[in-house]
Design a protein that fits this description.
This protein is mostly helical. The chain has 13 helices and no strands.
Length: 282
């Protein structure tokens, strides 16, 4: 259970960072198929599904509450090394994906799926510069409806490997306001300021409902695709995984990099690969 909580924490941290995909992290750590199955069979296999989902959700929540500010600090002080750590975490999942497609032979659809989904991630990263100004989170019926829709879109992209939900939020102008609201809610919770907590929930609850709806909807679609075209789906995911480091590098401007930064960055990359491979062991 502790191992699954750690995996959930890695997914939670990944979903916070623009350019990094929580779905990719789930694939890298060998829990993606289990999560999709647990979500789509939640009611028919409730106890079994909850045994899978509860540790993952605990890890994600811990990451949102405890790790978000640490990650923010690391990106502010050692962005090059931190990005390479996440690139390592992503690339560490490729051996597991290689096992998934082994024995699948060759069909023209496999390289096409790889190239198309690789290109989609790179194209998405190139759109980051078009991000809008921060959205208004003032409480109103229109904003509640918008937050429901944003939650659906964000969660759907978070579930798909190689697609960064936080990057989509950034493009729509909701990334900074939502992260700020989560941190604000944690501060109000620590102070047990009930009126302010209720005010924060006016934003977080509709967004959260949208997230849940989006996860269920996209999980059903993903399960159908895997049941019909498993090897095509896996090659598409490999394309997404390989493209993710490219997207991360595109989304960051590191400026001048010292020799020490390169050495420590390579060390962080290796650590990321080893951690992902270890967490991916069954």
């Amino acid at each position: 259970m502790v191992k699954d909580i750690l995996k959930g924490a890695v997914m939670g941290v990944a979903n916070i960072i623009p350019g990094v995909s929580g779905g990719t992290m789930a694939v890298s750590m060998g829990i993606y198929d289990r999560i999709i199955h647990a979500v789509t069979h939640l009611f028919s296999e409730f106890k079994k599904s909850m045994r899978v989902l509860i540790p993952i959700l605990i890890g994600i929540l811990l990451a949102l509450v405890l790790v978000a500010r640490l990650i923010e600090y690391l990106f502010g002080t050692v962005p090059f090394q931190t990005n390479l750590l996440f690139i390592g975490l992503i690339l560490g999942g490729l051996p597991a994906m290689g096992k998934k497609v082994r024995g699948g032979g060759f069909r023209i659809a496999y390289p096409i799926a790889f190239v198309v989904f690789f290109a989609l991630v790179v194209a998405g990263a190139s759109l980051e510069g078009t991000s809008s100004v921060d959205a208004d989170l003032g409480f109103s019926l229109l904003n509640v409806v918008k937050l429901l829709g944003v939650g659906v879109i964000a969660s759907a992209t978070m579930v798909v490997p190689g697609v960064s939900g936080s990057m989509i939020l950034m493009i729509m102008g909701y990334y900074t306001p939502i992260i700020g609201m989560i941190n604000q809610f944690v501060d109000h919770l620590a102070a047990f300021d009930l009126p302010e907590m209720l005010s924060d929930c006016g934003v977080l609850v509709p967004f959260g409902i949208g997230v849940v709806v989006g996860i269920f909807a996209i999980a059903k679609i993903i399960e159908f695709v895997f049941s019909k075209w498993p090897y095509v789906a896996y090659w598409a995911i490999i394309g997404l995984i390989v493209a993710s480091p490219v997207a991360i590098l595109m989304l960051n401007d590191f400026g001048s990099i010292s020799v020490v930064a390169v050495i420590t960055g390579i060390a962080a990359l290796v650590v990321g690969v080893l951690v992902a491979m270890k967490l991916g062991e069954e």
